[in-house]
Q: What sequence folds into this?
C-alpha cells in the first residue's frame, strides 16, 4: 500500500478496511460495484467517486464500501482520497 496519506488518515482507512471483511462485492459495470452486507446493499461508482451511503462524496474519502470495491479492482486507495488527505499536499501547504 502507498504511504502518501497522512498517518491519521491511514489509520482511519485501515479501520474501515477491517470492517470490509464480510462484505460481498459484485461488479456491475467497469467502475460500478454492488456491495452487500448484513441485509443491506450499496452501489459504489469508482469513476464518479460516489456511493449510495453518501459518505464517499460528502467526506471526499472512501467509505468502507468504496474500499471493498477498490480492493476488488486492485486500485490504490489513495487515488480515491481528496488531495487534502495526502501527505505531500500538506507539506506543500
Ligand atoms: Zn458507502
A:
Amino acid at each position: 500500500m502507498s504511504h502518501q496519506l497522512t498517518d491519521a488518515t491511514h489509520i482511519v482507512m485501515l479501520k474501515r478496511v477491517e470492517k470490509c471483511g464480510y462484505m460481498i462485492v459484485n461488479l456491475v459495470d467497469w467502475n460500478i460495484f454492488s456491495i452487500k452486507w448484513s441485509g443491506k446493499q450499496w452501489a459504489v461508482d469508482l469513476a464518479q467517486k460516489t456511493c449510495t451511503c453518501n459518505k464517499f462524496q460528502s467526506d471526499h474519502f472512501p467509505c468502507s464500501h468504496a474500499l471493498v470495491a477498490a480492493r476488488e479492482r486492485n486500485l490504490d486507495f489513495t487515488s480515491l482520497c481528496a488531495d487534502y488527505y495526502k501527505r505531500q499536499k500538506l507539506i506543500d501547504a
